[in-house]
Specification:
Structural class of chain B: alpha/beta
CATH architecture of the largest domain in chain A: Alpha-Beta Barrel
Oligomer: heterodimer
CATH topology of the largest domain in chain B: Aconitase, domain 3
Strand order of the largest sheet of chain B: 5-4-3-6-7
Largest sheet of chain A: 4 strands, antiparallel
Distance between the termini of chain B: 54 Å
Number of helices of chain A: 8
Radius of gyration of chain B: 21 Å
Largest interface: A-B, 58 and 81 residues
Number of helices of chain B: 16
CATH topology of the largest domain in chain A: Aconitase, domain 4
Shape of chain A: globular
Number of domains of chain A: 2
Radius of gyration of chain A: 19 Å
Structural class of chain A: alpha/beta
Strand content of chain A: 5-15%
Helix content of chain B: 25-40%
Strand content of chain B: 15-25%
Shape of chain B: globular
Chain lengths: ~210, ~475
């Protein structure tokens, strides 16, 4: 997994609430049994003019020149709600998004981000609106800087915000860890738990 | 201090406290389907990892398969065939259970699991599908995950999970005649928004829940994720035990009493404290229907399309304006009487036998309105067989409905069948998102009986009027 330590990037404001994973990548774009090749399906319903076409809708923010190189998304509450499809995260990552700043996230989407090198940052509505104003004034220059070690978001107005993340999630992102390998270090504990539990709840063990 | 059912299940499955608010939780059951499970199984295989307890892993073909009678591995979904064959091959190699096409246990994963006794009170169950919360209705801790976490759960029998806050939603009073679990959960989401349950595991409790049959409890828990919750759960009671008894994977005679004694310790203690409590009064709830593109965009069938000008919050106002444009609706329009083009009864929310009976009771002896496309897709092959045994298939087909094989079908548009561009659909499903049921399809969510009533009338209507006629 790609490590996330710090990032300074163009941020694209997409300030809608409840952006669901069907919007991030529609079902019809999940054509192969693969985590790859999903970048072109990102926001397909909004990004292209017609169903199934690849003709870009010039009104959609990620089609506009400075934002085509965005690495950060600014969004409204409940980003990534809906379907569990991890394809949403894979498509964002492949397109080039490395961090998403929103007031809240869908729970499954949040976990999926952390396991794929994307940093989900929770800031309040008001600050996100301010950040959107700052970047909109000059998208290419007014980049946002995120430091995961310090847990800070810095904007060109000099404002610094701190954000919360669990130490386990932070470590996984910063070290690009394989979560299965990390858990298997506790394999003895898992097997001991299973042996005890089997006696307590034999009916669970088919 | 007493513990909530959520804390009891959490403590019983905690292998290790990781010290930062997250625990390594033991996972009793993993389920999967061909869209996301295929990727998880392939991922494990590519990494050279094995499924730890394959006998406790179960898969269903539901998301990609066609529902047209006589179906095969070929599907109208572009590239869909590969999902089906990859899942079959990978499941066989891994040695996990699979309810494949042609198996009479096949169906939508969240309908099949309780039906087969795979989910039980007190277990932890995960599935790479957001509606896994459905299965919390039997008193299990069941939640949706991504494909990468599914690999983790299958390889290690555990997941690292941040301990959620706890909420109790109490449904007080008795709902009136014709008011269903779907109406209750839509009302909750309408009142407290689609993000209202964010960060919480929710126990649904109260008088209305205790009186609710098992199948309705699944409907209620199904939409916990639409409320933004991590998951929902209902404490097991006599209704739950009776439901589980005799199911294929449920405890057999020699351990049944032992299991039952354990299950009876699970309900929240009387002095348990939740981080948040919400009370909904059921007595005043009328049949609910959505008008917009989020489940929170809902009102009673006696209501009107809202005016965004009356919404003080800027974000919500913008979301209403966008929704009205997508739905082609103007503020003040009554929902009663809104003409529809299609009616869909199906999904893990509302396609169990009792749902089909409720819809069938409305449809019987009547005809689908001219020009309306009406479809019934049973939640599982078992539901289909049971419905056919009591003649429900004939009730629907004689009225002009299509009667299908089981699967997720048009709950979402995967590139194959859909409910039509800019067509207005009324649907017993769970998501009215933009483009969810087809490109620019305009979805109104409602209970199965309300969908049936709209199919007959040709427009949204209060089912209680039809029942009285």
């Amino acid at each position: 997994m790609e490590k996330f330590i710090e990032l300074t990037a163009i941020a694209a404001p997409l300030l809608r609430i409840n952006i669901d994973t069907d919007a991030i990548i529609p079902s019809r774009e999940l054509k192969r049994v693969s985590k790859k090749g999903l970048g072109t399906g990102l926001f397909a319903g909004w990004r292209y003019t017609e169903l199934g076409s690849r003709i870009e809708n010039p009104d959609f923010i990620l089609n506009q020149p400075p934002y085509r190189d965005a690495g950060i998304l600014l969004s409204g509450a409940n980003f990534g709600c809906g379907s569990s499809r991890e394809h949403a995260v894979w498509s964002l990552a492949e397109w080039g998004i490395r961090a998403i700043i929103a007031p809240s996230f869908g729970a499954i989407f949040y976990s999926n981000c952390v396991r794929n090198g994307i940093l989900p940052v929770i800031l309040d509505d008001e600050r996100i609106a301010t950040l959107a104003d700052i970047v909109s004034a000059n998208p290419a220059e007014n980049r946002i800087a995120i430091d995961l070690e310090q847990q800070t978001v810095v904007a060109v107005d000099g404002g610094t915000d701190t954000f919360d993340i669990t130490p386990a999630d932070r470590r996984m992102l910063m070290e690009g860890l394989d979560p299965i390998a990390v858990t298997m270090q506790r394999d003895d504990e898992i097997l001991a738990f299973q042996a005890r539990d089997r006696l307590k709840r034999p009916w669970v063990y088919l | 201090m007493g513990r909530t059912i959520i804390e009891k299940l959490w403590d019983a499955h905690s292998v290790a406290d990781l010290g930062d608010g997250s625990h390594l939780l033991y996972i009793d059951r993993v389920m999967f389907h061909e869209r996301t499970g295929s990727i998880a199984l392939k991922g494990l295989e590519a990494a050279g990892r094995k499924v730890r307890n394959p006998e406790q892993v179960f898969g269903c073909m539901d998301h990609i398969v066609d529902t047209i009678p006589g179906r095969t591995d070929e599907t109208m979904v572009p590239g869909g065939n590969a999902f089906i064959t990859t899942t079959r091959d990978a499941a066989q190699k891994a040695g996990v259970n699979l309810f494949d096409l042609g198996d009479d246990r096949q169906g939508i994963v969240h309908v099949v699991s309780p039906e087969q006794g795979i989910v039980l009170p007190g277990v932890t169950l995960v599935c790479p599908d957001s509606h896994t919360c459905t299965q919390g209705a039997v008193g299990a801790l069941a939640w949706g995950i991504g494909s990468t976490e599914a690999e983790h759960a299958m390889a290690t029998k555990t997941l690292v999970v941040k301990k959620p806050k706890t909420m109790r939603v109490r449904f007080d009073g008795q709902p009136g005649l014709g008011i269903t679990a779907k109406d209750l959960i839509l009302r909750l989401i309408g009142e407290y928004t689609a993000a209202g349950g964010g960060g919480y595991a929710i126990e649904f409790a109260g008088e209305a829940i205790r009186a609710m049959p098992m199948e309705a409890r699944f409907t209620l828990c199904n939409m916990a994720v639409e409320f933004g919750a991590w998951t929902g759960i209902i404490a097991p009671d006599e209704c739950t035990y009776a439901y589980c008894d005799g199911r294929p994977f449920a405890p057999k005679a020699h351990v049944w009493e032992q299991a039952l004694a354990h299950w009876k310790t699970l309900p929240s203690d009387a002095d348990a404290v939740f981080d948040k409590e919400i009370v909904i009064d059921c007595a005043d709830i009328v049949p609910q229907v959505t008008w917009g593109t989020s489940p929170q965009h809902e009102t009673g069938i006696d209501g009107v399309v809202p005016d965004p000008a009356n919404e003080p919050d800027a974000n919500r106002r913008q979301s209403i304006e966008r929704a009205l444009e997508y739905m082609d609706l103007t503020p003040g329009t009554p929902l009663e009487g809104l003409p529809i083009d299609s009616a869909f009864i199906g999904s893990c929310t509302n396609a169990r036998l009792s749902d089909l009976r409720a819809a069938g009771a409305i449809v019987k002896g009547r005809k689908v309105a001219a020009g309306v496309k009406a479809i019934v897709v049973p939640g599982s092959s078992q539901v289909k067989l049971a419905a056919e045994a009591e003649g429900l298939d004939a009730v629907f087909t004689e009225a002009g409905f299509e009667w299908r094989e089981s699967g997720c079908s048009m709950c979402f548009f995967a590139g194959g069948e859909n409910l039509g561009q800019e067509k207005r659909a009324v649907s017993s499903t769970n998501r009215n998102f933009e483009n969810r049921q087809g490109p620019r399809t305009r979805t109104h969510l409602a209970s199965p009986a309300m969908v049936a009533a709209a199919a007959i009338a040709g427009h949204l209507t209060d089912v209680r009027k039809l029942e009285q006629s």
